[in-house]
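Good day; I would like, with your permission, to put a structural problem before you. The record follows directly beneath this note:
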Amino acid sequence: MSIFGAAVSARLFSVIRFESIIHEFDPWFNFRATKYLINNSFYDFLNWFDDRTWYPLGRVTGGTLYPGLMTTSALIWHTLRKIGLPIDIRNICVLFAPAFSGVTAIATYYLTKEIKDSSAGVLAAAFIAIVPGYISRSVAGAYDNEAIAITLLMVTFMFWIKGQKTGSILYSSFAALFYFYMVSAWGGYVFITNLIPFHIFLLILMGRFTSKLYVAYNTWFIIGTVASMQIPFVGFLPIRSNDHMAALGVFGLLQIVALGDFVKSKLPPRKFKIVMIVSLLIILAIGIAGLFLLTYMGLIAPWTGRFYSLWDTSYAKIHIPIIASVSEHQPVAWPAFFFDTHFLIWLFPAGVFLLFMDLKDEHVFIIAYSVLCSYFAGVMVRLMLTLTPVICITAAVALSKVFDVYLDFSSAIDPQRRNLTSLLSRLIVSGTFIFYLYLFVFHCTWVTQTAYSSPSVVLPSTSPDGSMALIDDFREAYYWLRMNTDEDAKVAAWWDYGYQIGGMADRTTLVDNNTWNNTHIAIVGKAMASPEEKAYEILKEHDVDYVLVIFGGLIGFGGDDLNKFLWMIRISEGIWPDEIKERDFFTPEGEYRVDSRASKTMKESIMYKMSFKDFPILFNGGQAVDKVRQQAISLEDVGTLDYFDEVFTSENWMVRIYQLKEDDPEGRSLKEVGDFERAKGKLTKKRKITKPDLTLRV
């Protein structure tokens, strides 16, 4: 219970330092979907068509999501109400991840206990309870699929190890049911789908086939596959997708090996060996040829772009820029391994080595898990989340082995075998690792508090006197949209902010974080990269009322739209290569600039104009310095806006909202109207422009 409490309390910094609020981007969609579920039946939820997203296409939401997270939260909400605790659904969603992290620690204890012993289990549970690599996606407010997925991952593996060790149908069935739960909650279930078959395949190659493995895998595969097909978003993928073919192939291979085991008992060893080798070669050839043929015929779905990007890190950037544009799809930096796991990262290979020394069947599973996730985490930073649990397990195995030896003082203090040197060495080694544990706790607490407990919608900053202040521009802007625009108003913004606009502002968006339609996203990118008149036409065609851009040049917010602009251009160029060209946005020297040396195409784009409009005025009309790009901007660089009216700029200039002007009743172009009014001096400021005195704290 102490470890459970530590796991929960370590994730509450975000609530203590800020407030009970949903974080990031995807969690806002999950929160919105959960609210829909508690107000409607589960049947209505699965058939939910959301016409307030991806306008004018809409989204068949119920059939394109993993419902496990929302269903679990709704069940908790209904249960608490039944027993007289009417807790607000927002608080349930905010505290969801911390609560399940405690369950993860318990499951990790029992899994590691099966690998080594209870002492290693306690260490592994303690590690995963506070390790930053897991906390990064499970702090209070991080209401995302991973909040429950890692729990289900560890529970599934725990029952799988028990099932394959004992050949128990009961344990294997539990593994299948929790696998089904995992399928309902996270697309990363494919990792389990391939890791368990890989484990069986390795054991077969090692000559370790037993009836226990046969029972365990068949039970898990049949129940798990049939159950997973009940999730609408998954459907027939388990039998029609290359991502799932390994599980199906190992299932067939297991039947052949079982048959071979029976034939072996009826034939002389020499004849059986010949029959077995020939049979395996033929079956392997037929299986591979059949897979390619069925894929070519379209009966089996090919591997996705995300799959190819795991093996070729340049694939996404060349072929699918929308995948490469996501920061969590980038390769991980080496320091991140230490930052997220501290001293566990160098205990990790030691633990794997110790498992190699023993190499039981369950050890093969952990080794396979370690090798695969080490590679995948190296090419995609998001997968650091799946590597962290096995780091905790193997590090616990290594450290418990050290303590088994060096905390045993019985021989060192035995009067008959007194050895002061041995006693001293044991004290030094054990004391050193206990000190490492102290540093680990200190590091985890510091990282959690400073790096992983700030909601993306509220940013910490530093005031001139050095005290902490909060930058709340996002919520300020979304609240303005909710209170000052029509309920059916359509908002165009880059897809990153779609879920937040839908969840907080409750307004219709053209694109959002689901990113299912690359062409529709490219339309928004094309509009942002186009000159005013052309952008106006594109947006008018899609009934857009408002355009929202994020600008961080004033306070140094590096995640603004100008820093993402090249990805908008690349995605649009992939659809309209003749109209949008990335090189046009660079200087003749090949530099990406926003100052006076910026290209003409860059300066004419509405992204540039909307970001920098009136920005130099903050500096008395002189040259303003963009703190993100460290370049000077003048009024002559920015120019004017004729087709859009600025209707809102947040306190720290991070969020800027523009409204499309209505057509002139006299038939003049909006540029002509703007030129006429400027000539008569009728354009006046509608608000007082003030420069905030805050600096974003990095």
User: Anything to note?
Assistant: DSSP finds 32 helices and ten strands in the chain. The radius of gyration is 29 Å. The longest helix spans residues 420-450. The chain has two domains: 2-400, 468-696.
